[in-house]
Write a structure and sequence with these properties.
4 copies of one chain form a homotetramer. In chain A, helix 2 crosses helix 11. The first copy, chain A, starts with 19 loop residues before the first strand and ends in a 5-residue tail after the last helix. Chain A is built from 13 helices and 18 strands. The first copy, chain A, is about 35% helix and about 15% strand. The first copy, chain A, is an alpha/beta fold and about 450 residues long. At the B-D interface, helix 6, strand 15 and helix 10 of B face helix 6, strand 15 and helix 10 of D. Strand 3 of chain C pairs antiparallel with strand 4 of chain D.
């Protein structure tokens, strides 16, 4: 398990996990040549294959049976490849692996399914609004062959929605039957709106979401692509903060990491680094004052060891700060910036306590978001993208493709969106943070 | 899914998965202070917690119920920490993450459980034979604080077994109650022999295995530590081979990767790299000759594209080569070297066919084995090691700790050893290789 | 030429370049065994070896003859190794290579010269004030063997001076005959004060400076250690900023780099990266407004290309900003922060001009300072440190060791300190920046 | 000094260093806009600027006056940019930085000089033979914008010469006035032959060499591009070998590095790594046997320390091995492979001596050659390439551009080719190796 996580929320019903289909599958998959392997079913996935939602249980009790539809190539498909045009759109902030996903979608659709065209929509959903004057690219081999070891997205990105009727109409004009929406919660809600609009208009348009959340906070996605690359970069940054902290008397390395609603990056980087003394996440209210508050603990830690490293997720400490009241273009509320605020709290408390201190504050956000996918994410992107292609070609819609307990599954967009996945303080992940930092013991 | 895998073998019975215990747990865990969190059971794991073996099923059928014991900290433990001495031994070839495992075991046992001493056994099982004259290190904070970002093992390693009675006796002399054996199939079989010997002698000695297999071929271990680091390094090597291949007319980059019995590294690195045209693994017989043989396919590939990259696992092609008849110190049969053999086959075939060719052969084995653990493996090692400590302190023995479907579980040593885990040619993993390389289509 | 540079200041006289000596060299160097090589002089450096200050001239004119004393091992030395104690102190901000320098000094002095003891002074000059209660470490092999691939300094550092009489007295108490001062301009001025004090007191104490300036701004040091590592990290950061800038419409990546008085890091990273459009350095006044000001040029660049990358040295733009009036513990004036100021200027100008823009600001200072030395710097540190040891053992004092035109030379501390080296706008280096960015042509 | 080196050979006369010119410079340089800077001469280089060959001398003696012509942009140029076509050819084995050179040549010629066309000749000199049927690429921005952080060469490469009359004729057909030849000794000799042929035919063709030698063995080139990247990669490989060696009893890490005639990579990587115990280079005969032979020294080292790391340049040990008698396509004699030979010598000697030993042999050649340029090389390539463009536009021919004592200079091809630069055993570089390894003291 690379990065354990937990679902804190209400469990959906089996019925809510059912995937919408555009209709019966009338075409034989062109993958048969590769996957048949001479046996019944071959390496194709049956449409009734399921993957259990929960795999832990107590002996003597009944294991729960709730299950997702399993992803994978279907023997028969809905779209006739030679008449199929697919479009890809990438939205929201950068995340390692976007180019990997674009590349693998392209190759699966073009080389393996042999569809007519893959369109690259430019600059997020705004590229699906013809009024913006950004016609899509018709992608070719040369556009994608070498992009997977580069950060960013060759298609560009933007924040915020567009009107579903306009987007559906424009996709029809472009002759696109399939749309892959790569993005976070807002993007996936937008994808659902497009899928609904298409169904309302009886347009046979498959909308497949590929969850992109560097914070790893989309529900029913065990590990989202880019997350481990971000943890890896964060790990390096923490090591640098540790070097800075150790090099001076009472050095404090303070690193702010991504994580608005969920502290997965902070917690995982803490475990991987092995050098963090305090890890602060949004899931737990921050206590600064009093004997058991962070400030007094930090003072005791400095007295004992002479240096400390603190990792704070950007959503931590919101319980103590004034909300900004503002929102960004994606509609997310703007958080007050916990990094400089916490630096000031530490500095002024220790000044009061007459402890000379050197706080080195590092905010590596853009540095991390723009890195290329590491190998673990490259593997994940490859398979997420190919499974997304399979889902679309089989005429499924209004779903996302996700990794669940090491299997790829289909999850209805409505079930996965609307509120984030967060760390359970009783999970293995958080226990590991506590075991490693000893932060409750100072 | 970072690195999909499959069990090709017979499924054990529920009874075979039962874990041996040294006796009742009479002591309260010192972890209670950290993990209790004010609620019933806190973040402790109940001894009757289970994790399902198989999580995929077909709708309409009954999901299988076979399950592993779940790993994790127990509320009550068998050993009294203040009287407990633990020993750690690392065996066999190098693998990224060995130092991470040593460090996390040390900190969990010393800082969190507060045991008396952690001993580092030197140079593998030979350090458990007093005749070798290598007394163990008594580890201290300074020995381990900074080792986790370095390759190798600070304890050293060696191949081959020692006599169980001698080792059990020596562990008693050293006052050790707990032994962590970090190694591959042979090491784990040795660990089982020690556990049996201790039980026979009624010595309350907990033997906990931590599977170390860079090839990722230990059964019931979804992903072994070091594997993803190896894939990551292999990915880099393949990129270099690709650069070499593209830079000359009819350039062929030939990369031999680890994988004696199982091709996980070759297959995963192929997917991650995105630049491989032919991936050869031990699970599938190599076909060189004929229209559909590798050589003719390679010739067609070169004619079409002017260059090619081939990845071959060290255990591939054995169906065509003369066995050496030799074995190494660990008792593994020595394989004839597929790399130079294959290079020669390619060169002479293409010479015959009057195709001028430049084959660049790369064998990065030691380079890969000696690298440090990457972030994904650092996370895994941390949690494997801490769960191994929990199992030992709870008085469990003759087991290994493993990651299964993103949970940590206990697996009896007898069940996990004796024959390797291998890639199922009908698995998602292999399908992904075929989709990406298109190697069946030339 | 890795990183071209220029001296903007008055040229010293040959007399000013003379090195102070503690007295005649009465002992044979223990290096004779290794360096003699059976010939006259062997690989030893003669004390009258010189290295030309200026190597460029115009045909028909006379090449200038001003020259530095050449560094290197002397056949006869001043200190008797078995009675010699050396101390090492590291001061000021972190810089890649500090640990390399410590390690190489240690090995040259202990293994090759065989001196009695090498002392590590803790936390900068404050460790030379016994009132601070920080006795030095007596270094051993195990302390330094593995430190050279790690950032920071194992000795710790601090800013600011101590009283020379106190330090000289304390060094006598410690039995130290030799002190290596690794630091920037302030540290080297402090070293000169110690050397003067020792001469005044007739204490035979050799004071050898090793210039540490990540900004590369110490005079008569062509390239200071850590500089190329910093450029290398800065290059990576700029690439990330480029990825961010390209990924959105009118994206601007704004990277602030180190360089208070001299823009060597900004200029060199600009050349290495190949992705910078505007490079701003302290040596040239910043022009923001008007047709040829940065803001209008940026607007034209965005209109033409849709994105831009700007690199700004921390000392740039001071001509337009209000001084803070404050100083730090080292006595350096605190500069107003050009990064956020420039970001605000860009944002408000483009808002006025009704150009929607996305500015991503990155300030990687601590991230860069704490990195380990790269290979080029590892080579430099090794040789700087060994040459510093040679100078000290030969009884030279009040000097620094420097790299000049690919040779190592001795420079009197008084000549090298007091005002920084800066980029000449007519130099090859700046011409290369202009050629690459085309920043004067928008 | 990044990588010290020495010229072992006879010193040319001032006359031999004179550069051939195609004729008077009738055109004003288009760079005037950027470089004029409002003053006389601006940042242009005068044609009579010189750079001293030797910069070290003994006090009391006269500094030598031999000097190279300084490289740099000339105020007046020979070719009219709008009528100029330039061609680039890359030859021989891969070397980090080839793509950087291509990119910087392209941008300087197209963006700054504004010439008509830059042609990319495919697959080395064979692309200048029309009989091979490989017409050149007409390069555009999109071909080169992102290539500089990638290994290899986008133009491809090959070994061996073509007929000068054919190449000159073909260049005329292509309308090329300028040819940049990027390659090693053989390539540069080929370039000279082309230049001679053009002069003979009175074709105004400028031939400018850019020395490419990963071994760093071209005369009058202090540091060749790619060399430091190779050292950096070699440094990493040695660290891995060190990890392997330390992890077992009597572990020996044996690393073969590039260096046919000169051991610069081996020596520099030895210094940078800090972990090498024996460094073997072609400049010094290998002594295996006897009390002071490598084998006995290694045995003593193992007895004392339990492990050892040996670095051997590929050209070392040739004094003890049977020549192969063969040559490669470039006409270089094929060396017998010192790596496996030395491994066998060590293994059998220690077996005889009844010392159990584990030799791990690593040959990273292709891995190193195909890496991308590091930052230090990126800086060098940028400036080498731009200076090469300046030389060509000024109508100079039959020369190479080189870095000498941190200045860029012009060197006639005849002077630089024909016999390699090698390490002087009395140089600082070799002294540093001896100081660090202590290899003469076992």
């Amino acid at each position: 398990m690379s990065a354990p996580c937990d679902e804190g929320d209400a469990i959906p019903s089996q019925d809510e996990l059912r995937i919408t289909s555009l209709g019966p599958c009338q075409f034989e998959s062109p993958l048969a040549r590769t996957l048949k392997l001479g046996e019944e079913g071959g390496a194709f996935t049956l449409d009734r294959s399921r993957v259990l939602y929960q795999i832990e249980f107590q002996e003597g009790e009944e294991p729960p049976r709730l299950a997702f539809e399993r992803a994978g190539p279907r023997e028969r498909i809905f779209f006739n490849p030679k008449d199929t045009r697919a479009a890809i759109v990438t939205c929201g902030g950068l995340c390692p692996g976007l180019n990997d996903v674009i590349r693998s979608l392209y190759y699966e659709l073009k080389s393996n399914y042999g569809i007519a065209e893959v369109l690259g929509i430019l600059y997020g959903y705004s590229g699906l609004n013809p009024a913006k004057g950004r016609p899509p690219l018709v992608l070719a081999d040369g556009d994608v062959a070498e992009i997977h070891h580069e950060g960013g997205t060759i298609l560009g990105t933007s924040r915020g929605p567009q009107e579903p009727p306009i987007m559906v109409e424009y996709l029809r004009e472009l002759g696109a039957n399939v749309l892959f929406c790569v993005g976070g919660d807002g993007t996936l809600r937008g994808a659902h709106a497009i899928a609904e609009e298409a169904i309302k208009r009886k347009v046979p348009l498959s909308i497949v979401g590929i969850p992109k959340t560097i914070d790893n906070d989309v529900r029913f996605c065990f590990r989202s692509f880019g997350f481990l690359s971000a943890v890896s970069e964060a790990d390096l940054v923490i090591d640098r903060a540790h070097v800075e902290a150790k090099s001076v008397e009472n050095g404090v390395g303070l690193v702010k990491l991504m994580g608005r609603e969920a502290g997965y990056i902070a917690a995982s980087a803490t475990i991987a680094s092995g050098h963090v003394n305090f890890c602060l996440i949004p899931e737990l209210p921050l206590v600064l004052d009093g004997h058991d508050g962070l400030l007094a603990k930090l003072k005791r830690r400095l007295a004992a060891r002479g240096h400390a490293v603190i990792v704070v997720a950007e959503g931590a400490g919101q319980n103590l700060m004034e909300p900004t009241g503002a929102t960004d273009a994606s509609g997310n509320r703007k958080l007050p910036d916990v990094g400089p605020w916490l630096k000031e709290k530490i500095t002024s408390y220790l000044a009061e306590q007459r402890v000379a201190v050197n706080v080195r504050y590092i905010d590596p956000s853009y540095h991390i978001r723009s890195t290329a996918a590491n190998t673990a994410d490259a593997l994940l992107c490859e398979q997420l993208a190919r499974n997304a292609a399979h889902a679309a070609m089989a005429g499924k819609t209004d779903l996302l493709v996700s990794n669940w307990n090491n299997q790829f599954v289909h999850v209805p967009l409505t079930v996965a969106t609307g509120h984030p996945k967060r760390i359970n303080p009783r999970s293995d992940l958080w226990s590991a943070v506590l075991a490693l930092t000893g932060q409750d013991r100072w």
